[in-house]
Amino acid sequence: MNKYELALVVNAKIEDEARAEVVEKAKEYITRFGGTITEVEEWGKKRLAYEIQKMREGFYYFIKFDADADCPAEVEKRVRILDNVLRFLCVRQEEA
Fold first, then answer.
1. What's the farthest any 2 CA atoms get from each other in the chain?
2. How far is 79 from 61, CA to CA, in rounded Å?
3. Partners of 59 in the beta sheet?
4. Could you name the CATH architecture of 2-92?
């Protein structure tokens, strides 16, 4: 099992409930493909470095999880098509 971190930038113009649904959906994808979530960090609303889809702000979430090597590709494939996700990045964390 490898350690991964999924960073999500979610649309800041949607309701809190819809934003929570997006994060829950991402967590559901991780568990569906054999991952175990270890930590979820909510950084809140931040200004984006550049405008994305005519938006200047987004909500940042970081989901840390343990999974096999094929899980991140499957999660990325499904997170890519979620409506309110502006950007995402899944990276493998180095062993300390």
1. 39
2. 13
3. 10, 45
4. 2-Layer Sandwich (3.30)
37, amino acid identity: I
Predicted confidence pLDDT, tens digits, the chain (96 residues): 899 999 999 999 999 999 999 999 999 999 999 999 999 999 999 999 999 989 999 999 999 999 998 999 999 999 999 989 999 999 999 876
pTM for the model: 0.89
Tokens, residue 15: 């309701």
What are 25's two structure tokens? 């959906």
Q: Structural domain boundaries of the chain?
A: 2-92
